[in-house]
């Protein structure tokens, strides 16, 4: 595509050469004679009258500006909020890792009636872990609705209470059914926290600090995982129920601190504005953005105005902000495609094999020929390197980009798992000497450590970042819930089948998950656009394409930038109507040539 700049600056005209560039007639507002958008082409949908959302008084944890809150303002209050959110993520990490040690306790296996080593017992062991993710799926869906209706803080409170009840039931479990129900209830609470906390944290954090906040949260997530491992390592010599009941009860400490702290924090200013509490939203913004809670501060007023604009979009598009509409209904924002990209990436994240390592790490090291004591010790050290590797992602993610990071991670992790599989095959070969088998066991250990560190530096963060980056603002809260749904499905499937895989195909389990790593490469290349160093508005431009393929969406965005720079710039700077009304440029054969002339387009020109 070439340009003739001999004109006087009039809008560019697309000329066929020799193929045709088609502009959808359905896209109202595009002038075929000039290749540009008309001003005020169609009146915006009327904004429904906004009235305060009356949340019943009996619902606890509602925000009241006149109640005692944490005596901090400005950056200190934001940091406190990040620590509060981090504690919830730390609990999440602990809860993920705690079952790894529980599954190796002989007393636990005896109480659950799954200590015979049969295929049925292997399936039951995986099932107990997997039903938890059924609970997280339900909790995410419920929290997505409650978060919009009753507020972020009350939703956090209910999620904490559900998790506390579930943890207490797990601690006192006496049989398989009891434990399974307790795991589901705990999962409901965890799913609610995983949905609500990231949204609340993003809405109270300062603009431009989201990346560092995400990195800090994931660091605490792996710290929680490490705490679970080391706690259980300290109890490894106990043969009584205390070995597994105490770690399960220990997570209640985190939850009680969260529950007690909720009333001392501020509600999301965006939720307050969305529900007709503009004065409260201004007050909360003043506390979050200024050291002296100045409600007349220019930044506060500007951000409040931005929030009100977003609220107007939400009110116009409120029918689209529903789960069924988001997942199955086609709209001008292509929300459906964005939702399924977020869900699928979370599922792929689990299929690359991290659940095999985090939940069944002692089993992995046991297959490598290490004793129970050494397996637990290696699992704990592995978690420490895992936590350290997260900081690599924090430092490199925005510089390297999302797509290259996922490519690099999948390749290294796939190779690492192949090494583990090959080495595990020789570890189990009794015809080899003990020293040779031990050497191959060290190769399994090296491959596992390399895999885990690589995952922490690459695939750990992006599937959680992407839903925030690709979701339009008016569906972002429930978009986060869909992300947790995908995570729950992926985790549930992997953790349920892994014990059976280790028993049925032994070292081939590593090869299977290595294969999934390599399969992820074309999926990322074809379907997931690069979001690093792009504004949310630029990402919106990409997703207005009717094509699911990344290269076509990129080509259309480039063509729009050349054919109508004004419309493209308006879209890049947040003009939602410009994004919605953009022309659909489709290429058939050779490229079109753009001419900048003041003359009307001739026949055959669009």
UniProtKB/TrEMBL annotation:
Residues 32-41 have a biased composition (Basic and acidic residues). One of its GO terms (molecular function) is carbohydrate:proton symporter activity. One of its GO terms (cellular component) is membrane. Keywords: Membrane, Transmembrane, Transmembrane helix, Transport. The chain crosses the membrane at residues 83-102, 122-146, 153-170, 212-231, 246-266, 339-363, 375-394, 406-426, 438-460, 481-502, 508-528. It catalyses: myo-inositol(out) + H(+)(out) = myo-inositol(in) + H(+)(in). The keyword Chaperone does not apply. InterPro entries: MFS_dom, MFS_sugar_transport-like, MFS_Sugar_Transporters, MFS_trans_sf, Sugar/inositol_transpt, Sugar_transporter_CS. Its main location: membrane. Residues 81-532 form the Major facilitator superfamily (MFS) profile domain. It is a multi-pass membrane protein. Residues 1-20, 32-51, 586-606 are annotated as: Disordered. It holds the Pfam family Sugar_tr. It is found in: Membrane. Belongs to the major facilitator superfamily. Sugar transporter (TC 2.A.1.1) family. This is And other transporter-domain-containing protein.
């Amino acid at each position: 595509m070439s340009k003739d700049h001999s004109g006087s600056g009039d809008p560019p005209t697309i000329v066929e050469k020799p193929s045709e560039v088609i502009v959808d007639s359905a896209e109202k507002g595009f002038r075929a004679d000039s290749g540009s958008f008309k001003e005020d082409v169609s009146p915006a949908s009327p904004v429904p009258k906004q009235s305060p959302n009356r949340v019943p008084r009996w619902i606890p944890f509602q925000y009241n500006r006149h109640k005692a809150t944490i005596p901090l303002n400005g950056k200190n209050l934001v940091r406190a909020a990040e620590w509060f959110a981090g504690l919830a993520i730390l609990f999440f990490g602990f809860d993920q890792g705690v079952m790894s040690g529980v599954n190796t306790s002989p007393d636990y296996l005896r109480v659950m009636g799954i200590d015979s080593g049969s295929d049925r017992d292997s399936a039951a062991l995986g099932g107990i872990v997997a039903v938890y993710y059924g609970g997280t799926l339900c909790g995410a869906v419920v929290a997505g609705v409650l978060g919009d209706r009753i507020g972020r803080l009350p939703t956090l409170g209910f999620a904490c209470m559900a998790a506390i009840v579930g943890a207490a039931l797990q601690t006192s479990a006496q049989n398989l059914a009891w434990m399974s129900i307790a795991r589901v209830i705990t999962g409901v609470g965890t799913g609610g926290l995983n949905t609500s906390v990231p949204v609340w944290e993003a809405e109270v954090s300062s603009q431009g600090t989201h990346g560092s906040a995400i990195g800090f949260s994931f660091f605490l997530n792996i710290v929680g995982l490490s705490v679970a491992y080391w706690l259980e390592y300290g109890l490894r010599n106990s043969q009584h129920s205390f070995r597994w009941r105490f770690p399960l009860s220990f997570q209640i400490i985190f939850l009680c601190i969260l529950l007690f702290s909720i009333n001392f924090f501020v509600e999301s200013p965006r939720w307050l504005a969305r529900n007709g509490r503009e004065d409260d939203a201004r007050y909360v913004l003043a506390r979050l953005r200024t050291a002296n809670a100045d409600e007349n501060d220019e930044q506060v007023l500007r951000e409040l105005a931005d929030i009100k604009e977003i609220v107007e979009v939400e009110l116009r598009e409120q029918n689209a902000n529903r789960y069924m509409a988001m997942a199955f209904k086609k709209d001008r924002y292509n929300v459906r495609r964005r939702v399924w990209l977020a869900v699928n990436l979370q599922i792929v994240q689990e299929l690359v094999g991290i659940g095999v390592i985090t939940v069944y790490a002692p089993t992995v090291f046991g297959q490598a020929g290490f004793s129970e004591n050494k397996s637990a010790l290696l699992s704990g050290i592995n978690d420490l390197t895992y936590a350290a590797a997260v900081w690599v992602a924090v430092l490199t993610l925005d510089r390297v980009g999302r797509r290259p990071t996922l490519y690099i991670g999948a390749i290294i992790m796939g190779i690492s798992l192949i090494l583990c599989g090959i080495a595990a095959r020789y570890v189990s070969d009794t015809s080899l000497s003990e020293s040779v088998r031990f050497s191959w066991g060290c190769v399994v250990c090296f491959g596992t450590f390399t895999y885990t560190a690589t995952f922490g530096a690459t695939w750990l963060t992006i599937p959680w970042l992407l839903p925030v980056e690709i979701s339009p603002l008016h569906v972002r809260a429930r978009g986060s819930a869909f992300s947790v749904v995908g995570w729950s499905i992926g985790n549930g499937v992997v953790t349920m089948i892994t014990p059976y895989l280790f028993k049925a195909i032994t070292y081939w389990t590593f090869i299977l998950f290595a294969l999934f790593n390599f399969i992820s490469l074309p999926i990322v290349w074809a379907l997931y656009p690069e979001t690093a160093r792009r504004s949310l508005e630029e990402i919106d431009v990409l997703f207005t394409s009717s094509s699911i393929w990344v290269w076509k969406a990129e080509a259309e965005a480039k063509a729009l930038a050349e054919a109508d720079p004004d419309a493209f710039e308006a879209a890049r700077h947040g003009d939602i109507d410009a994004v919605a009304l953009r022309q659909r440029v489709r290429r058939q054969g050779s490229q079109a040539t753009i001419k900048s002339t003041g003359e009307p387009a001739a026949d055959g020109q669009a």
